[in-house]
Amino acid sequence: MSILIKTSEEIKKMRIAGRLAAEVLEIIEPYVKPGITTNELDRICHDHIVNKQKAIPAPLNYHGFPKSICTSLNFQVCHGIPSEKKLKKGDIINIDITVIKDDYHGDTSKMFHVGEPTIKGTRVSNISHECLVKGIQLVKPGTRLGDIGEVIQKHAESNGFSVVREYCGHGIGRGFHEDPQVMHYGKAGTGVTLQEGMIFTIEPMINIGKRQVKILKDDWTVVTKDHSLSAQWEHTILVTPTGYDVLTLREGESI
Ligand code: MF3
Ligand code: CO
Ligand code: CO
Q: What are the pocket residues of ligand 1 if the criterion is a CB atom closer than 6 Å to any ligand atom?
């Protein structure tokens, strides 16, 4: 396992890529309304990334993924493929954006409510977001990845929810998925020790029901086995000398 420590030149490029990924989530927000298809959301994001940002949508053709963004709806956990399906009020949807700019990746996702937020949708989205924030707040040199996993797992499970274990956060840079793997469960005091200059994502997938998942016949879409609602939020985070810097913050967002 080799974790690449980023140089200041690389960090500069990662800041730009992170900012662009965040911007895509900002521009798509007004379109996430009942009646739009996830293909239309994909097209709007693709065009913005390619034509406005002069960047590359990293998912497109990544291990054969057919679209430019991931759209994961309701009981879909992650890697949902945009389609002709229309959003309807009461849906929750995760939109996951990864852009490549000047060879470096920025990766971020957030939940959206379609129409009026529902009680269950709000609960699972909020807890998943709190899990992300609690994980981020531990990031600094000397923290162990197990510290982050434990705080996320404890927050989810103490609220009666479960943590998906098959997918995790990841180092990111020139590579989309670099070392280390960032588990969203585990034991404090174990695992990799963080160092200044590491960059990785935290992206907890939290289910209302059981943690088990399966992959649909399209070979991509991950869904909860019990069809319970699932929510995920993701940021790309730099380890600084004293703590963290979130490279994918949206306008007006603070952690
Ligand atoms: N953006 C996802 C992540 O957070 C990965 C998507 S891979 C794809 O790691 F092929 F499904 F796009
Ligand atoms: Co990621
Ligand atoms: Co992502």
A: 59, 62-63, 65, 70, 79, 96, 98, 107, 201, 203, 234
**pLDDT tens track for 43-67:** 999 999 999 999 999 999 999 999 9
Whether 145 contacts 170, CB under 8 Å = no
Question: Ligand 3 centre and the CA of 190: distance in Å?
Answer: 25
- Quote the pTM value: 0.99
Give the tokens for residue 121. Answer: 């949708």
188 CA to centre of ligand 2 in angstroms = 22
Among 14, 152, 35, residue whose Cα is nearest residue 85:
35
Structure tokens at 144: 């162990």
Give the residue, out of 45, 97, 98, with the most ligand 1 atoms within 8 A of its beta carbon, to mutate for a pocket test. 98
Cβ neighbours of residue 103 closer than 8 Å, sequence gap 6 or more = 13, 174
Which residue pairs from 151-156 have beta carbons closer than 8 angstroms and sit at least 24 positions apart in sequence?
Answer: 151/188, 152/184, 152/185, 152/202, 152/204, 153/184, 153/185, 153/186, 155/127, 155/130, 155/131, 156/127, 156/128, 156/131, 156/204, 156/206
Asked if 5 and 192 count as a contact pair (C-beta separation under 8 A), the reply is: no
As a whole number, the mean pLDDT across the chain is 98
Q: 65: exposed, middle or buried (C-beta count within 10 Å: 0-12, 13-18, 19+)?
A: middle
Alpha-carbon distances, residue 199 vs 49, 77, 171, 181 (angstroms):
22, 24, 6, 12
